Amino acid sequence: MYLEVHKKVEEKMQKTISVFKDELKAIRAGRANPALLDRVVVEYYGTPTPLKQIANVSAPEPRSLLIQPWDSNAISDIEKAILKSDLGLNPSNDGKVIRLSIPQLTEERRKDIIKLLKKVTENAKIAIRNERREANDILKKMEKTSEITEDDLKQSEGEVQKLTDKYVEEIDKLREKKEEEIMEV
Question: pTM for this structure?
Answer without folding.
Answer: 0.72
